[in-house]
Amino acid sequence: MARWHYEDFPEGEVVEYGDRPVSAEGIVEFARAYDPQPFHLDAEAALETQAGELIASGWHTVALTFRMSFDAFIADSASQGAPGIDEIQWLKPVRPGDRLRVRRTTLAARVSGSRPHLGIVQFRFETLNQDGEIAMRQTNSVYVARRSVGEV
Amino acid sequence: MARWHYEDFPEGEVVEYGDRPVSAEGIVEFARAYDPQPFHLDAEAALETQAGELIASGWHTVALTFRMSFDAFIADSASQGAPGIDEIQWLKPVRPGDRLRVRRTTLAARVSGSRPHLGIVQFRFETLNQDGEIAMRQTNSVYVARRSVGEV
Question: What is the pTM (predicted TM-score) of this model?
Fold first, then answer.
Protein backbone atom coordinates (compact mmCIF):
# COMPACT_ATOMS: atom_id res chain seq x y z
CA MET A 1 0.00 0.00 0.00
CA ALA A 2 1.43 3.38 -1.01
CA ARG A 3 2.11 5.81 1.79
CA TRP A 4 1.37 9.06 -0.08
CA HIS A 5 -1.96 9.71 -1.78
CA TYR A 6 -3.62 12.75 -3.33
CA GLU A 7 -4.76 13.95 0.09
CA ASP A 8 -1.14 14.18 1.25
CA PHE A 9 -0.27 17.00 -1.18
CA PRO A 10 -2.36 19.96 -0.03
CA GLU A 11 -2.26 23.17 -2.03
CA GLY A 12 0.33 25.59 -0.69
CA GLU A 13 2.47 22.99 1.05
CA VAL A 14 6.24 23.50 0.80
CA VAL A 15 8.66 20.68 1.63
CA GLU A 16 12.38 20.24 1.13
CA TYR A 17 14.30 17.05 0.56
CA GLY A 18 17.41 15.61 -0.98
CA ASP A 19 21.12 16.04 -0.50
CA ARG A 20 22.78 15.04 -3.71
CA PRO A 21 26.48 15.64 -4.27
CA VAL A 22 27.45 16.40 -7.85
CA SER A 23 30.78 15.04 -9.04
CA ALA A 24 32.84 15.86 -12.11
CA GLU A 25 32.70 12.16 -13.00
CA GLY A 26 28.89 12.14 -12.85
CA ILE A 27 28.67 15.29 -14.96
CA VAL A 28 30.98 13.83 -17.61
CA GLU A 29 29.29 10.43 -17.66
CA PHE A 30 25.87 11.94 -18.32
CA ALA A 31 27.29 14.31 -20.93
CA ARG A 32 29.07 11.56 -22.86
CA ALA A 33 25.77 9.75 -23.34
CA TYR A 34 23.34 12.61 -23.89
CA ASP A 35 24.86 16.08 -24.09
CA PRO A 36 28.51 16.03 -25.19
CA GLN A 37 29.11 19.76 -25.34
CA PRO A 38 32.72 20.61 -24.39
CA PHE A 39 31.74 22.51 -21.24
CA HIS A 40 30.01 19.36 -19.93
CA LEU A 41 32.88 17.01 -20.86
CA ASP A 42 36.20 18.43 -19.80
CA ALA A 43 37.32 21.11 -17.34
CA GLU A 44 40.21 22.25 -19.52
CA ALA A 45 38.23 22.38 -22.75
CA ALA A 46 35.50 24.27 -20.87
CA LEU A 47 37.89 27.17 -20.27
CA GLU A 48 37.69 28.00 -23.98
CA THR A 49 33.88 28.06 -24.03
CA GLN A 50 31.18 30.54 -23.06
CA ALA A 51 30.63 28.55 -19.84
CA GLY A 52 34.29 29.02 -18.83
CA GLU A 53 34.24 25.97 -16.56
CA LEU A 54 32.90 22.43 -16.34
CA ILE A 55 29.15 22.56 -15.63
CA ALA A 56 26.41 19.93 -15.64
CA SER A 57 24.07 19.50 -18.57
CA GLY A 58 20.72 21.08 -17.80
CA TRP A 59 19.18 17.69 -18.52
CA HIS A 60 21.46 16.12 -15.94
CA THR A 61 20.17 18.57 -13.33
CA VAL A 62 16.61 17.67 -14.32
CA ALA A 63 17.38 13.95 -14.04
CA LEU A 64 19.06 14.37 -10.63
CA THR A 65 16.08 16.39 -9.44
CA PHE A 66 13.70 13.65 -10.51
CA ARG A 67 15.83 11.09 -8.68
CA MET A 68 15.67 13.13 -5.48
CA SER A 69 11.89 13.38 -5.84
CA PHE A 70 11.66 9.66 -6.50
CA ASP A 71 13.59 8.84 -3.35
CA ALA A 72 11.72 11.39 -1.23
CA PHE A 73 8.14 10.50 -2.16
CA ILE A 74 7.39 9.13 -5.63
CA ALA A 75 8.67 5.64 -4.81
CA ASP A 76 6.21 5.34 -1.95
CA SER A 77 3.31 7.20 -3.52
CA ALA A 78 0.16 6.33 -5.45
CA SER A 79 1.51 8.36 -8.39
CA GLN A 80 0.03 7.47 -11.74
CA GLY A 81 2.60 9.44 -13.69
CA ALA A 82 2.91 12.83 -15.33
CA PRO A 83 1.50 13.68 -18.74
CA GLY A 84 4.23 16.22 -19.34
CA ILE A 85 6.05 19.27 -18.05
CA ASP A 86 4.65 22.79 -17.97
CA GLU A 87 7.96 24.60 -17.77
CA ILE A 88 11.65 24.29 -16.97
CA GLN A 89 14.01 27.18 -16.29
CA TRP A 90 17.75 26.80 -15.86
CA LEU A 91 18.84 29.68 -13.66
CA LYS A 92 22.34 28.91 -12.32
CA PRO A 93 25.07 26.52 -13.42
CA VAL A 94 25.56 23.28 -11.49
CA ARG A 95 29.23 22.59 -10.82
CA PRO A 96 31.36 19.71 -9.53
CA GLY A 97 31.30 19.78 -5.74
CA ASP A 98 27.81 21.26 -5.53
CA ARG A 99 25.26 19.65 -3.22
CA LEU A 100 21.71 19.81 -4.52
CA ARG A 101 18.39 19.61 -2.75
CA VAL A 102 14.80 20.18 -3.86
CA ARG A 103 12.10 22.52 -2.60
CA ARG A 104 8.70 21.23 -3.66
CA THR A 105 5.65 23.51 -3.60
CA THR A 106 2.12 22.32 -4.30
CA LEU A 107 0.72 25.00 -6.59
CA ALA A 108 -2.70 23.41 -7.12
CA ALA A 109 -4.57 20.22 -6.31
CA ARG A 110 -7.93 19.04 -7.61
CA VAL A 111 -9.85 15.86 -8.19
CA SER A 112 -10.02 14.74 -11.82
CA GLY A 113 -13.42 15.33 -13.38
CA SER A 114 -13.22 12.40 -15.79
CA ARG A 115 -11.42 10.00 -13.43
CA PRO A 116 -12.69 10.81 -9.93
CA HIS A 117 -10.47 8.19 -8.27
CA LEU A 118 -7.50 10.37 -9.23
CA GLY A 119 -6.26 13.74 -8.12
CA ILE A 120 -4.20 16.10 -10.23
CA VAL A 121 -1.45 17.80 -8.27
CA GLN A 122 0.58 20.61 -9.80
CA PHE A 123 4.03 20.90 -8.27
CA ARG A 124 6.82 23.41 -8.58
CA PHE A 125 10.23 21.84 -8.03
CA GLU A 126 13.13 24.17 -7.28
CA THR A 127 16.59 22.66 -7.26
CA LEU A 128 18.81 24.50 -4.80
CA ASN A 129 22.56 24.39 -4.40
CA GLN A 130 24.48 24.51 -1.12
CA ASP A 131 24.32 28.32 -1.15
CA GLY A 132 20.54 28.31 -1.43
CA GLU A 133 20.62 29.52 -5.02
CA ILE A 134 17.94 28.16 -7.34
CA ALA A 135 19.74 26.32 -10.14
CA MET A 136 16.61 24.98 -11.81
CA ARG A 137 12.87 25.47 -11.57
CA GLN A 138 10.31 23.07 -13.02
CA THR A 139 6.52 22.99 -12.96
CA ASN A 140 4.41 19.96 -13.77
CA SER A 141 1.28 18.08 -12.81
CA VAL A 142 1.16 14.52 -11.54
CA TYR A 143 -1.81 12.15 -11.33
CA VAL A 144 -2.06 10.68 -7.85
CA ALA A 145 -4.68 8.18 -6.69
CA ARG A 146 -7.02 9.34 -3.93
CA ARG A 147 -6.99 7.44 -0.67
CA SER A 148 -9.89 5.02 -0.67
CA VAL A 149 -12.41 5.16 2.12
CA GLY A 150 -11.10 3.10 5.00
CA GLU A 151 -7.54 3.03 3.62
CA VAL A 152 -4.85 4.03 6.09
CA MET B 1 33.62 28.32 -37.43
CA ALA B 2 30.13 26.98 -36.74
CA ARG B 3 28.14 25.83 -39.74
CA TRP B 4 24.65 26.76 -38.51
CA HIS B 5 23.73 30.27 -37.45
CA TYR B 6 20.49 32.08 -36.66
CA GLU B 7 19.83 32.65 -40.35
CA ASP B 8 19.78 28.90 -40.97
CA PHE B 9 16.64 28.33 -38.89
CA PRO B 10 13.89 30.15 -40.78
CA GLU B 11 10.41 30.26 -39.28
CA GLY B 12 8.22 27.43 -40.55
CA GLU B 13 11.07 25.12 -41.54
CA VAL B 14 10.55 21.43 -40.80
CA VAL B 15 13.46 18.98 -40.81
CA GLU B 16 13.84 15.38 -39.68
CA TYR B 17 16.91 13.66 -38.35
CA GLY B 18 18.12 10.84 -36.15
CA ASP B 19 17.77 7.10 -36.13
CA ARG B 20 18.28 5.98 -32.58
CA PRO B 21 17.61 2.39 -31.56
CA VAL B 22 16.30 1.95 -28.03
CA SER B 23 17.48 -1.12 -26.14
CA ALA B 24 16.20 -2.71 -22.95
CA GLU B 25 19.72 -2.34 -21.55
CA GLY B 26 19.74 1.38 -22.28
CA ILE B 27 16.31 1.85 -20.72
CA VAL B 28 17.35 0.02 -17.56
CA GLU B 29 20.71 1.78 -17.26
CA PHE B 30 19.09 5.22 -17.37
CA ALA B 31 16.36 4.15 -14.97
CA ARG B 32 18.80 2.75 -12.39
CA ALA B 33 20.49 6.13 -12.17
CA TYR B 34 17.59 8.55 -12.43
CA ASP B 35 14.12 6.98 -12.52
CA PRO B 36 14.02 3.54 -10.87
CA GLN B 37 10.31 2.88 -11.19
CA PRO B 38 9.63 -0.86 -11.69
CA PHE B 39 8.23 -0.43 -15.21
CA HIS B 40 11.54 1.16 -16.28
CA LEU B 41 13.73 -1.46 -14.59
CA ASP B 42 12.50 -4.95 -15.32
CA ALA B 43 10.22 -6.50 -17.94
CA GLU B 44 8.78 -9.05 -15.55
CA ALA B 45 8.15 -6.61 -12.71
CA ALA B 46 6.56 -4.25 -15.26
CA LEU B 47 3.78 -6.79 -15.92
CA GLU B 48 2.39 -6.05 -12.45
CA THR B 49 2.34 -2.27 -12.99
CA GLN B 50 0.04 0.18 -14.72
CA ALA B 51 2.47 0.29 -17.66
CA GLY B 52 2.18 -3.48 -18.14
CA GLU B 53 5.54 -3.69 -19.92
CA LEU B 54 9.06 -2.31 -19.82
CA ILE B 55 9.03 1.29 -21.09
CA ALA B 56 11.61 4.06 -21.11
CA SER B 57 11.58 6.83 -18.55
CA GLY B 58 10.13 9.97 -20.06
CA TRP B 59 13.36 11.70 -19.08
CA HIS B 60 15.32 9.10 -21.01
CA THR B 61 13.29 9.92 -24.13
CA VAL B 62 14.02 13.61 -23.57
CA ALA B 63 17.75 12.90 -23.16
CA LEU B 64 17.86 10.71 -26.30
CA THR B 65 16.03 13.44 -28.22
CA PHE B 66 18.57 16.00 -27.12
CA ARG B 67 21.40 13.72 -28.20
CA MET B 68 19.86 13.32 -31.67
CA SER B 69 19.54 17.11 -31.92
CA PHE B 70 23.12 17.53 -30.75
CA ASP B 71 24.42 15.18 -33.41
CA ALA B 72 22.22 16.64 -36.15
CA PHE B 73 22.93 20.33 -35.67
CA ILE B 74 23.76 21.63 -32.18
CA ALA B 75 27.35 20.35 -32.26
CA ASP B 76 28.06 22.36 -35.39
CA SER B 77 25.97 25.41 -34.57
CA ALA B 78 26.51 28.84 -33.05
CA SER B 79 24.06 27.90 -30.28
CA GLN B 80 24.43 29.89 -27.08
CA GLY B 81 22.20 27.59 -25.09
CA ALA B 82 18.60 27.43 -23.96
CA PRO B 83 17.24 29.33 -20.95
CA GLY B 84 14.63 26.64 -20.35
CA ILE B 85 11.84 24.56 -21.78
CA ASP B 86 8.37 25.85 -22.61
CA GLU B 87 6.62 22.50 -22.57
CA ILE B 88 7.07 18.73 -22.74
CA GLN B 89 4.32 16.22 -23.47
CA TRP B 90 4.78 12.47 -23.26
CA LEU B 91 2.27 10.98 -25.68
CA LYS B 92 3.25 7.35 -26.33
CA PRO B 93 5.45 4.88 -24.47
CA VAL B 94 8.95 4.19 -25.80
CA ARG B 95 9.74 0.48 -25.79
CA PRO B 96 12.79 -1.74 -26.28
CA GLY B 97 13.30 -2.26 -30.01
CA ASP B 98 11.87 1.12 -30.98
CA ARG B 99 13.79 3.33 -33.37
CA LEU B 100 13.44 7.03 -32.67
CA ARG B 101 13.89 10.05 -34.88
CA VAL B 102 13.15 13.75 -34.44
CA ARG B 103 11.03 16.18 -36.42
CA ARG B 104 12.12 19.74 -35.72
CA THR B 105 9.86 22.67 -36.59
CA THR B 106 10.92 26.29 -36.27
CA LEU B 107 7.92 27.95 -34.64
CA ALA B 108 9.37 31.45 -34.42
CA ALA B 109 12.65 33.26 -35.02
CA ARG B 110 13.59 36.82 -34.10
CA VAL B 111 16.64 38.90 -33.33
CA SER B 112 17.19 39.64 -29.64
CA GLY B 113 16.36 43.21 -28.72
CA SER B 114 18.88 43.45 -25.90
CA ARG B 115 21.63 41.40 -27.57
CA PRO B 116 21.35 42.10 -31.30
CA HIS B 117 24.20 39.72 -32.20
CA LEU B 118 21.92 36.87 -31.13
CA GLY B 119 18.77 35.39 -32.54
CA ILE B 120 16.12 33.61 -30.51
CA VAL B 121 14.76 30.54 -32.26
CA GLN B 122 11.75 28.70 -30.87
CA PHE B 123 11.71 25.04 -31.89
CA ARG B 124 9.19 22.26 -31.55
CA PHE B 125 10.84 18.85 -31.31
CA GLU B 126 8.67 15.80 -31.96
CA THR B 127 10.19 12.43 -31.22
CA LEU B 128 8.75 9.82 -33.56
CA ASN B 129 8.93 6.04 -33.36
CA GLN B 130 9.31 3.65 -36.29
CA ASP B 131 5.54 3.71 -36.85
CA GLY B 132 5.51 7.49 -37.16
CA GLU B 133 3.77 7.92 -33.82
CA ILE B 134 4.73 10.95 -31.76
CA ALA B 135 6.14 9.66 -28.47
CA MET B 136 7.19 13.04 -27.12
CA ARG B 137 6.74 16.69 -27.99
CA GLN B 138 8.88 19.50 -26.62
CA THR B 139 8.95 23.24 -27.25
CA ASN B 140 11.80 25.53 -26.31
CA SER B 141 13.80 28.52 -27.45
CA VAL B 142 17.50 28.56 -28.17
CA TYR B 143 19.86 31.52 -28.47
CA VAL B 144 21.84 31.28 -31.70
CA ALA B 145 24.49 33.76 -32.86
CA ARG B 146 23.77 35.62 -36.08
CA ARG B 147 26.14 35.15 -38.97
CA SER B 148 28.54 38.07 -39.06
CA VAL B 149 28.83 40.12 -42.21
CA GLY B 150 31.34 38.43 -44.48
CA GLU B 151 31.17 35.13 -42.57
CA VAL B 152 30.58 32.04 -44.72
Answer: 0.96
